[in-house]
Amino acid sequence: DAVVPFYGERQAGVTTRQQEQMMFAAFDLTTMDPLAVQQLLGRWAAAAARFTQGKPVSGGSTPANRPPTDTGEGIDLGAHSLTITVGFGASMFDERFGLRDKMPAALRPFGKLPGEGDMRPELTGGDLCVQACADDPQVVFHAVRNLTRIARGTAVLRWSQLGFGRASATGTGQTTPRNLFGFKDGTRNLHADQTADIDRYVWVDDAATDQPWMVGGTYLVARKIAMVIESWDADFLADQERIFGRRKDSGAPLSGGQEFTVPDFHKTGANGKPLIDVRSHMALAAPENNNGVKILRRGYNYTDGQDPVSGRLAAGLFFVSFQRDPAQFKALQTKLGAGDLMNEYVTHLGGGTFACPPGVHSAGDWFGKRLF
Ligand code: HEM
User: Cα(289)–Cα(44) distance, rounded to whole angstroms?
Assistant: First the structure.
């Protein structure tokens, strides 16, 4: 059974080869006591160290007159490459815990970006987040359920999302999956083995932060993006391909070649127009057209079943990206939100920005220990 090491210089679940399943959860702290927050982060770290090895909350046996320490549904399942990644929202740095001076400038909320007017407060933000990823859905659910249980009295669940099917590739050699529009997603993503780019665009280093406790960390941006899939399914193929700037079957750019051929945004067709529409998702998001900005995408397809009002399938992309500064996401979303042809078929419903501290190095350490 595959085990991803939990202890390390950096948190797992970022450049880790992307697992198939995800559960994301955002929490509100209910305590006013900074010590209780540290205890929670310590208990989460201890539990995460065990879960990621396929072990339950604690080793001992439970007396018959006490509730079991672990809920039990993970027993015998194994680790399935479980990773648990923890982040801190901007609200954690308000007046409650005396952490005002520790707030990284990069975490300052950027307000509503273009295309994000429909974000719902109840699906947005949170003091803490947990991203659990594994190759088994019950393993990720077990992790989030038990971390939520451990948090009782200190933090409550604010919003959460279950994802199925990775909608990105984070390793060269990992096949490119498809999102619910049916397109290959992750073709030109940053890959874990592109270490120079990963160091440059994903991890926070001394030069990139005003807060030493964030060195070795990264910023997570999440977006729950609903897809209007019934309308999409009625759109004709050539238009779907124009929207992304890629072929639906092979994933090749419309400028020609194969999936991994570098797109040529200047190549024109018989009508003199670029073969890749300037308002296509790819043209607007590509580093060539954004002063070189890159992000590491690590999203998942999701469904919430049926929309109770319209009766339609409620589904979309749970977008997750990692970057050394949320400004990278902001730059891209500002352009996409204003001009992306895809906007006709998507609605941003919620999400958040979280500062993920460096890794937990060994037993006794915890998430963000240097912050306190
Ligand atoms: C590329 C889908 C939202 C950033 C792509 C590609 C697809 C895709 C199919 C082309 C294949 C690839 O290179 O991965 C979607 C869908 C979205 C969505 C279905 C929402 C439902 C976003 C958002 C951002 C973003 C919110 C960032 C703000 C990018 C970037 C690329 C990309 C940076 C790579 C462009 C390149 O270098 O060629 N996306 N995307 N996407 N997307 Fe998205």
Answer: 41
CA-nearest of 317, 115, 353, 111 to 232 is 317
* Contact assessment for residue 50 and residue 149, using Cβ atoms and an 8 Å cutoff: no
- Residue 136, domain member (yes or no): yes
> Would you state the pLDDT for residue 278?
97
Angle, helix 137-150 to helix 34-51, in steps of 10 degrees: 150
Ligand 1 contact via 317 beta carbon (within 6 Å): yes
Q: For the segment 262-281, what is each residue's pLDDT rounded down to a tens digit?
A: 999 999 999 999 999 999 99
225 lines ligand 1 (CB under 6 A): yes
CA distance 311 to 336: 28
Determine the structural domain holding residue 333 and report its residue range. 21-58+74-371
Residue (of 57, 39, 316) closest to 163 by Cα position: 316
Mutate to test the pocket of ligand 1, among 297, 303, 340 (most ligand atoms within 8 A of CB): 297
Category of 322 on φ-ψ map: left (φ > 0), alpha (ψ -120 to 50) or beta: beta
Q: Which residue has the tokens 């594994």?
A: 134
Element (H, E) at 21: strand 21-29
For 125: left if phi > 0, alpha if psi spans -120 to 50, otherwise beta; the answer is left
- Is there a domain that residue 303 lies in? yes
Residue 13 lies in a domain: no
* 236 Cα distance to chain centroid: 31
**pLDDT for 54-83, tens place per residue?**
999 998 888 899 999 999 999 999 999 999
| Binding site membership of 241 for ligand 1 (Cβ less than 6 Å) | no
Q: Is the pTM of this model over 0.90?
A: yes
What is this model's ipTM? 0.99
Is residue 11 situated within a structural domain?
Answer: no
Question: Are 88 and 130 spatial neighbours (Cβ–Cβ below 8 Å)?
Answer: no
Average pLDDT, integer, range 273-298: 98
Dist CA 273 CA 213 (whole Å): 49
Indicate the pairing of strand 300-306 with strand 346-356.
unpaired
Could you give the number of structural domains in the chain? 1
Q: From the CB of 141, is ligand 1 less than 6 Å away? A: no
